[in-house]
């Protein structure tokens, strides 16, 4: 269909309000439809959207001591229902994040806001308790989950958790939501009130296909036009499809295996280190991911300004066994190790409809059996897997021992939301429940300075410490794959927000 883009990601969604749902799949739609102060350009740099400029010390938007941030807002922006956008919407959205009644996916940075001034309808001044160098990401960027919300629609509610708004949000973007047919599709159409460039596409349809094999079939039959973030395990199949192109580029995503440190066995660093030694990441990358990705230990990808190189830890079952022996984990009659009554029997959580992920888990199962560890694989639909903690989510609710999925790291390089001591859900995304006072101090040092050299030093420390402590195992830094019909033109995704330039695309 001319000027209609149909795409899929191989999963379902929890909801359409990014305040309550941290899925990357939703972030794609949100970058088209929701309200943001800042977006990102082709080189992953922040650029103004509803703000007239990205605040900095050079333009006077950041005070000399780094504790006052001033945003000047556009005067011609309207919500997709026609109501003018003002500074009160920004103030209200900050209050929403800070309201403990709301199931927010993160509070990072917002607890640093001492007060908010709105001296006029088009100026917002944030007074912080300390410098926050990641502010441009935290406070309303297209990467961040907390978008700007319309006060006129939500301001009278005690909580946004059950608001009808969440099923069909009103935003400010080149597109607006037209419908969400649960279990089937989400449809977006151009917003005629949008102040910026007008999309060439007349409709964008996200097709809900919670199975990767079915997604491949529909790409093959051209029932979808784009498989956004094609899993690497499908690379060899999609690149030979007729009339389908595949682009491959470095990503800010990383594939990983998480340990829930509240599990008695996984609280032992020796167990986590042994489990990492018994994961054959080279084979996973070569055989299952078809060589698409980059082996590394740290969560910040090559190409990220704060990435560091750390020597790769080899696959070594013998060393893993020796480590567990030394730590007092003895094999039982059934081959499973125990210590003080705790068995190395772990629930391994994964999304459903992911055959490539299942293959990875089975490879891990075989290796872990050799070191006396048993696993039970449990599948969950994505809308339950990534649901908020207060809504019974598996990952955010800590209802797992080991979990496998991918994270998109912040363009700022700040990892506090993923690993900070006070960022356990629902306050943040520290789903592994990791806590290190030394790492927290490095996070604070990184965020309190605007000087790149000082940030680099702090980033090196916390990346090296995370590798030592092993709350997560990075299987590889991803390379993004985009598979699309050869009549789709003008699609040039960046590494942070791949749909930010979709206004230039057409089919």
UniProtKB/TrEMBL annotation:
SUPFAM superfamilies: Periplasmic binding protein-like II. One of its GO terms (biological process) is peptide transport. One of its GO terms (molecular function) is peptide transmembrane transporter activity. GO terms for cellular component: ATP-binding cassette (ABC) transporter complex; periplasmic space. Pfam families: SBP_bac_5. Keywords: Signal, Transport. It is found in: Cell membrane. It is a lipid-anchor. Residues 46-418 form the Solute-binding protein family domain. InterPro entries: Peptide/Ni-bd, SBP_5, SBP_5_CS, SBP_5_dom. Belongs to the bacterial solute-binding protein 5 family. This is ABC transporter substrate-binding protein.
